[in-house]
Write a structure and sequence with these properties.
105 residues, alpha+beta, 2 helices, 25% helix
Length: 105
């Protein structure tokens, strides 16, 4: 085996490794990712202002905070200051939908 054949073999193996590295790329971060634990749930989703936000829900207290990355400030800023979700789903707490009547129509 001469020097030229060895060099062609090394370059071919290097090209194959680089091709495989380009084909097997790690998964990109995307919206609608949910991470749930016993105490907290974290959800990413698109918001109407554009971009994405992180929704953090405290499962024990029922409070939710919404955080968004502000590229101008280069910081994570809160969009809400801890909303109480129990009021949104409680029909007598205001803000919830009325309870449908029970029984047959």
């Amino acid at each position: 085996m001469d020097k030229r054949t060895f060099l062609i073999g090394v370059l071919s193996i290097t090209a194959a490794v680089l091709l495989a590295a380009n084909l097997i790329q790690p998964r990109n971060a995307e919206a609608s990712l949910v991470v749930k634990d016993n105490e907290y749930t974290a959800v990413t989703a698109r918001i109407s202002k554009g971009g994405e936000a992180l929704y953090l829900l405290d499962n024990r207290s029922g409070r939710m905070a919404v955080l968004m990355y502000d590229p101008n400030k280069r910081a994570v800023v809160p969009l809400t200051q801890g909303t109480d979700l129990t009021l949104a789903f409680n029909p007598r707490g205001g803000g919830g939908a009325p309870v449908p009547p029970r029984g047959r129509p």
